[in-house]
């Protein structure tokens, strides 16, 4: 068993807002992240897969395939978009770093040939990230 | 769903690796230049990973402002710009980064109760890093492997 990690980047805007709360509660809980005009980040995505090394190729997964899957399933949907307004999974879930990591996992699960998803890590800033391992 | 929230902090501190239980020659042989008599310093990076269910109301595992305040009070205010050897916790413990990592973990585990402290990772330099406890990483990877089996398209 070996782990392989591929990075990708996307830039997107978002805001934090819970419709069930008053404006005052949203501002108190989320601070400047509750500004309804939104703000943005350069996100870094790290996708780690696990698997056995193929004896014929020496690969655990074809990196070109993994890159294409990340581009198709995640980057092309999130990059230069407003996550709250343009990405369907964030109509019902606040696009926090935790929820983005979970959403990326759901987008990738079952799409990577020959390897299993091990971890999705999303950096919102170099000093702030979320990890999801597929746990309930 | 259970996710993990990670935050990185930096602190600068000095230390000297020296054990009273070893001779001068043994200390020099084991610790090398880290045993030089007047100490030296590092810019440490402390990475704190909290685990827990994502709160459906906030989309968060842990309140960032509360975590930052706790780490500031318990770790940064205590250790930043200090000599680690002078702290009570290192009077009988060599302030290697392994031991520093465990000290930080134990302080945070009892001070921050709003989410489960999953792991603390400390970088001493960009070439050296330490992680404690290790068991949590393996538990998570076991869970992911069993769920991920046969997921290939």
TrEMBL record, chain A:
Pathway: Purine metabolism; 7-cyano-7-deazaguanine biosynthesis. Transmembrane segments: none annotated. It comes from the Bacteria. Pfam families: PTPS (PF01242). InterPro entries: 6-PTP_synth/QueD, 6-PTP_synth/QueD_sf. SUPFAM superfamilies: Tetrahydrobiopterin biosynthesis enzymes-like. Its cofactor is Zn(2+). Keywords: Lyase, Metal-binding, Zinc. It catalyses: 7,8-dihydroneopterin 3'-triphosphate + H2O = 6-carboxy-5,6,7,8-tetrahydropterin + triphosphate + acetaldehyde + 2 H(+). GO terms for molecular function: 6-carboxytetrahydropterin synthase activity; metal ion binding. Its EC number is 4.1.2.50. Belongs to the PTPS family. QueD subfamily. This is 6-carboxy-5,6,7,8-tetrahydropterin synthase. It comes from Silvibacterium bohemicum.
Automatic annotation (TrEMBL), chain B:
It is an enzyme of class 4 (lyase). Pathway: Purine metabolism; 7-cyano-7-deazaguanine biosynthesis. Keywords: Lyase, Metal-binding, Zinc. Gene3D superfamilies: 6-pyruvoyl tetrahydropterin synthase/QueD (3.30.479.10). One of its GO terms (molecular function) is 6-pyruvoyltetrahydropterin synthase activity. It comes from the Bacteria. It catalyses: 7,8-dihydroneopterin 3'-triphosphate + H2O = 6-carboxy-5,6,7,8-tetrahydropterin + triphosphate + acetaldehyde + 2 H(+). InterPro entries: 6-PTP_synth/QueD, 6-PTP_synth/QueD_sf, PTPS_Cys_AS. Its cofactor is Zn(2+). GO terms for biological process: tetrahydrobiopterin biosynthetic process. Its EC number is 4.1.2.50. PANTHER family: 6-PYRUVOYL TETRAHYDROBIOPTERIN SYNTHASE (PTHR12589:SF7), PYRUVOYL TETRAHYDROBIOPTERIN SYNTHASE (PTHR12589). Belongs to the PTPS family. QueD subfamily. This is 6-carboxy-5,6,7,8-tetrahydropterin synthase. It comes from Silvibacterium bohemicum.
């Amino acid at each position: 068993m070996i782990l392989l990690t591929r990075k990708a980047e996307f830039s997107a805007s978002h805001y934090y807002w819970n419709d069930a709360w008053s404006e005052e509660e949203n501002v108190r809980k989320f601070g400047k992240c509750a500004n309804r005009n939104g703000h943005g980040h350069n996100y870094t995505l790290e996708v780690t897969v696990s698997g056995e090394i193929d004896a014929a190729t020496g690969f655990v997964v074809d990196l070109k395939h993994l890159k294409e899957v990340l581009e198709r399933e995640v980057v092309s949907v999130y990059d230069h978009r407003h996550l709250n307004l343009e990405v369907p999974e964030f109509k019902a879930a606040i696009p926090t770093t935790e929820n983005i990591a979970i959403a990326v996992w759901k987008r990738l699960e079952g799409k990577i040939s020959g390897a299993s998803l091990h971890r999705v890590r999303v950096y919102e800033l170099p000093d702030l990230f979320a990890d999801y391992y597929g746990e309930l | 769903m259970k996710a993990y929230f990670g935050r990185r902090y930096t602190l600068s501190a000095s230390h000297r690796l020296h054990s009273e239980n070893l001779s001068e020659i043994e200390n020099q042989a084991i610790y090398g230049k880290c045993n030089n008599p007047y100490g030296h310093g590092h810019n440490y990076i402390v990475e704190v990973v909290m685990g827990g269910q994502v709160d459906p109301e906030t989309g968060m595992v842990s309140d960032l402002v509360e975590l930052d305040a706790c780490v500031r009070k318990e770790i940064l205010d205590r250790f930043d710009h200090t000599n680690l050897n002078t702290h009570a916790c290192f009077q009988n413990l060599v302030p290697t980064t392994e031991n520093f990592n465990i000290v930080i973990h134990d302080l945070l585990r009892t001070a921050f109760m709003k989410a489960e402290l999953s792991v603390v990772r400390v970088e001493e330099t960009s070439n050296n890093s330490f992680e404690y406890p290790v068991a949590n990483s393996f538990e998570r990877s076991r869970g992911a492997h069993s769920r991920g089996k046969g997921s290939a398209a």
